[in-house]
Structure formats: C-alpha cells, structure tokens
Design a protein that fits this description.
The chain has 3 domains: 244 residues, no CATH class; 47 residues; 62 residues, no CATH class. The strands form 4 sheets. The chain has a 4-stranded antiparallel beta sheet, with helices on one face. It has a 3-stranded antiparallel beta sheet with strand order 4-3-8. It has a two-stranded antiparallel sheet with strand order 2-11. The chain is an alpha+beta fold. The chain has 14 helices and 11 strands.
Length: 396
C-alpha cells in the first residue's frame, strides 16, 4: 500500500470519490464564501530570512510533549504514545505541522488506517487545493495533490488548523500581505549580486580620432579586445592604449543597496509577521524572552492542535468521560536553573507537582518502580483531606 492508500483507505476512498463526483453542490457556509483552500505562498519558504523564522517556531514547537489520557480506545492510545504514525516521531510530526501552518496558514491532519480500516495514527497532508463538499448529509474534505491525485475524508474525522482566518468559515487566509516585503528582499539580494559582479569588471570610455568609417571602428574594437582582453592575450593584465585614444575615463558603477536601517525594517516585518525575534532565531534568547515567545507563539499552537486532535480522535461521549489528547510544554526548558530551583521549592513543598515532574525540569530520568509518582508535602503544609479531619475534630 502506498502512503496515500494508507491514509485515505483505497477501497473507501474509491467509493467516496465516486459518490462525491455525483455531489451537486458545494457545502454551503454561513458567509456564503466558497469553501475552497488553494495552496499559495510556498515560494516564501525559499527566502532565507522567512525560512529561518518559520524554522525557529517549528523547532520550539517540536519540543512539545504529546500525551493521550482517558479510557476510550486503549489500542489507539497505545499506538499514539509510541508516535503519530509509522513514519514519523512526534517531534517530526509537530515540526512539519507547524511549518505547513506557517507557510499555508492552514494545516490538515487526517487519520491513518490499517488494512481493517481501523485508525492507527495521524498524518499532516499538504494538498495543492482542498474543497468542502456535501454528500448525503455528510460534509467531506476533498483534496487534490500536486501529483494530480484526489482523495476525500469526512470533515468530522480530520482536524483543520488555521491562522489569519477571516473570510472562510474553515480555512485560513493566504500570505499575500507579506508579498511586498518578499519583493524588497528579492530586490535587495539581486542588488548585492549585481554589485559583486560589477566590482569584478573594468569599464572605460574613450574618444577615437581619425576613424571616419563604422567598419574601421569595428575593426579597432576587435583588435583592442583580442590584444588586451582575450584569454590568449599576453598583455600581463595591462591595458595599452594607442595615441589615437583620447579622453580615457573609467566608468564607476555604484549599484544601489538598501541601507542598514531599511534592511532592519525588512527583517522586522518578517519577525513581526511570524511572531519571532532575532534573539529566538539566533538561539540567543534569555529566559524572559523565551517565556514571552512561548506565551505568544508556542502555547496558541499547542492549544489549537490539542483541541483539534481531541475532537478528531474521540467522540463527544468519550470526550465527556475524560478522554483527550494534549500537547504540553514539559520539554520547554527555557527557565534558568535558579528559576527551576525556585519553582521546585514553591510547588514541590506544597504537593502541587510530582517528584518525577521536578526531576524532569532538570533533565533527570524518572525514579524507578514509580517511586517518583508522589507529591510530598512539607510538615507545615497539610493536604486538604487532613485539614477537613482536623476541622471536624475541632467542631466536635
């Protein structure tokens, strides 16, 4: 089975595709905006500064720890604890999902099935376009890929992550507002390239006397080039001008380049658009910078993917009974050692976190045999049930 077959189930995909071809109309949305997603803006990933900004977000997001909780579908939960699918680790899955979301402002997470059509994992697809259609009262996502292949899956069985969502009820907007900044970056790079080329060339202008015919002027140009500029020339790098050349002047070409202040503004536009800073991009950010970056860039993604995949994998009844998937920040070790020690003291003394969670802050392994799955409380603090017993005794 191919990757596409494993994700979209060959038998059911063929059946659904035949059914969707008979669908008479698009799924109608509240805004009456045509619910079609088109892959646009992939070219922005070819820019060095844009790719670096997207990579900075994805690297930190890839450190999120995905956990599955609850009692529903234990077989699926067991598989997800090992990884999102048979091809990726959770770190790779989160990195790619974050990258697709930043480049396209829409990311589609779909289920992966085995031969028995049982969900065994999740995968983030990158279609060239996607449309919402309705068939027999069911809303479907119909994908078209760059290879020309089509696939479809029920909307309720997938998760859609979005950024800059406005006109569409389901999909995010394009990165069109970044177009002017991208053009400035391209022009600046071209200017630097042309400047390097011009710096390696020698140009001059001169007046030639005693040449009345155009043919004689052309012959003199060929002679001068052959004697001084050809690869077989033995001039030794010196240009020799006969006395017929007058008013010889060198031509200085000064290509325009964006000054440092303007270039800094261009970089700032990219950083503002993707929510990163130069310190985060260059791995020079301190604890306060990383904490702000987490609150503004990482945590919103963690919340959106947690809620989307929980709704995708578990039914309403299973969610009500406490089954959910969550991407938390246990692996984001942005705090300084002093801050970690203070957090361990303040929360650990009160029984707010487990011993193993404290050890994880300092990159220590859990204690063996589950010994770290306890929350010790210092003597001057009391657990709630103990306080209730003391209160009841006092009342008596």
């Amino acid at each position: 089975m191919s990757l596409l077959d494993k994700i979209f189930r060959p038998a059911e995909a063929k059946k659904s595709e035949d059914a969707l071809q008979k669908a008479s109309a698009y799924f109608q949305t509240l805004t009456a905006y045509t619910p079609v997603f088109t892959n646009w803006g992939g070219a922005i990933y070819e820019s060095e500064i844009v790719r670096a900004a997207i990579d900075a977000r994805a690297r930190h997001i890839s450190k999120l720890k995905v956990e599955v909780n609850g009692t529903a579908n234990q077989s699926l939960q067991s598989k997800l604890r090992q990884g999102p699918n048979e091809w990726q680790t959770w770190s790779q899955f989160l990195y790619r999902t974050s990258t697709i979301l930043d480049v396209q402002n829409t990311a589609f997470i779909v289920p992966v099935f085995d031969e028995r059509m049982i969900i065994t994992g999740v995968f983030t697809v990158l279609p060239s376009s996607c449309s919402l259609v309705e068939y027999d009262g069911e809303v479907w996502l119909r994908y078209q890929f760059a290879s020309g292949q089509y696939a479809a899956v029920e909307l309720r069985k997938c998760a859609i992550l979005t950024k800059h969502q406005y006109r569409s009820d389901f999909f995010g907007e394009s990165n069109f507002p970044l177009r002017e900044t991208m053009q400035l970056i391209h022009i600046q790079n071209q200017g630097i390239e042309e400047g390097v080329k011009n710096a390696a060339t020698f140009r001059f202008m001169a007046t030639l006397n005693n040449f009345a015919k155009p043919e004689d002027l052309a012959k003199e140009r060929e002679r001068f080039t052959e004697k001084n500029l050809s690869t077989e020339s033995e001039s030794g790098g010196f240009l020799l001008f006969p006395n017929t050349y007058k008013d010889i002047k060198q031509i200085d070409v000064k290509p325009y380049a964006v000054d440092s202040a303007q270039m800094e503004q261009i970089r700032e536009n990219v950083f503002n658009y993707f929510g990163v800073s130069e310190e985060v991009l260059q791995n020079k950010a301190k604890a306060e910078d990383l904490e702000a970056f987490f609150d503004g860039a990482i945590e919103p993604f963690a919340i959106q993917i947690s809620e989307g995949m929980t709704k995708m994998l578990f039914s309403e009844r299973e969610r009500a009974q406490g089954s959910f998937l969550i991407a938390n920040a246990n692996r984001l070790q942005y705090m300084s050692t002093a801050a970690k020690v203070q957090m361990a003291k303040e929360l650990g003394d009160r029984g707010a976190i487990l011993i193993d969670e404290i050890r994880e802050l300092f990159n220590y392994a859990p204690l063996p045999d589950g010994a770290g799955q306890v929350a010790p409380i210092r003597g001057e603090y009391k657990a709630t049930d103990e306080l209730t017993e003391v209160q009841d005794a006092n009342e008596e």
